[in-house]
């Protein structure tokens, strides 16, 4: 058994069922035995696509997305996807080749040579590990999955020299010691202090971020016990449905939400960086928490970033919130005041009035998608309607609003990530919402969608260029340059790949177009001209 064959068996033992990658001469030995395994391989048209597929798969499945990439350009191509996953705390395992042990570090011009791959990958991963002996591989994998299962998840990079891939691995164990790792829980003393603060608060507030991966009922029960509105950041949307009286699916960058925070005497922030892409999107510096701030995060280094905590709870969010809920005084429903629901309703109403008429039309468009395809996962790129939805929108289920317009904020994310999301949840509708600029980063992945037989619905929001950047230029008295693009007939390109495709002729025909897309039972593309959703004068 070669080390490449051993890797596949080891991945199987960690319950990996899919890998994403493009085989090359520097990874071909890692593919030996793959066809005979239970693992399904998906081939993108670019390694960046492999990373974004793995990202979408991980966000929806909760399992790490695994990628196989070649030495040098394979790793540099996937780097953007790793950086997005790093920024958003997404588990991803990237296994790359590297040149032969004797050829490393000499700069002799070997094929795919990088001076130091691990140093490069360390900037966008929790750790980067270079295998120098076959016995290193099981240890490196154990470290990776321990991190995924018990701490802040982020990408991990493992590189294997091409001469070791074919080395004998008969002496290595075919299974590892699989045992559940105890996730950290906030200390009982800190929990008791938080319970006292929250119980005595006259105007408590919950802010929940994408770092909360646990049972939604715990958040709901705690909010109802405190009679506290729940502000959900972009990556937490759907944690409570919009119709829940305490739900606030709106950005803390908006003045109305900031007023709610300012009026709260105790703020409990769970699994959120309190970072600018959620809390200070316009970089005005006006985000503040004047009341007592309790922060709950599994990463102790995060507790005092952006807004220092008055009380720190370091531990797994679900375990720690469960302990906090048990420590709270029992409150019967009839004794719960209605102030929290009243505040949440006012915020939702006023938030919509803060937004422009164009934005409100875009929110109505998103709500139409929810209504037409219940339970849909909307995977977005950095495009106008996604920016608007990040300000105010809630999917009807959790893990239903995923996009790259926060954190690293890359273009070209949505199409590949939507394929990964559909592979993770085949029964849920998956909508890729991407601009005409963003989809031109990854048009080739239309073929990957067909290969993977993933019936996603791709909505191309066409405004003939980088409209958001153009508007920013105009607002800042900069003559627009480089933002007007020649856009192809996306529907014709999609049809050439074998997709169901059409141009939306009228905003009133959206539901019918979605029904036609679903009925095709294959990937479908609908080109939408942005002007169809301009506000009516």
Largest sheet: 6 strands, parallel
> How many domain regions?
3
Number of helices: 20
CATH fold name of the largest domain, please? Rossmann fold
Please report the first level of CATH classification, the CATH class of the largest domain: Alpha Beta
- Secondary-structure-based class equals alpha/beta
Would you identify the CATH H-level superfamily of the largest domain?
A: Thiamin diphosphate (ThDP)-binding fold, Pyr/PP domains
Keywords:
Thiamin_PyroP_enz_TPP-bd_dom, thiamine pyrophosphate, alpha/beta, Rossmann fold, six-stranded parallel beta sheet, 537 residues, 3 domains, 18 strands, globular
What does this structure look like?
It contains 20 helices and 18 strands. The protein is an alpha/beta fold. It has three domains: 3-165, 3-Layer(aba) Sandwich (Rossmann fold); 188-350, Rossmann fold (3-Layer(aba) Sandwich), CATH 3.40.50; 355-533, Rossmann fold, CATH 3.40.50.970. Helix 10 links the parallel strand 10 (266-270) and strand 11 (292-297). Helix 2 runs parallel beside helix 3 and helix 8 packs parallel to helix 11 (317-327). The longest helix is centred in the middle third of the chain and has 16 residues, at 339-354. The radius of gyration is 24 Å and the shape is globular. The model has no long low-confidence stretch (mean pLDDT 92). Keywords: Thiamine pyrophosphate. Belongs to the TPP enzyme family. This is 5-guanidino-2-oxopentanoate decarboxylase.
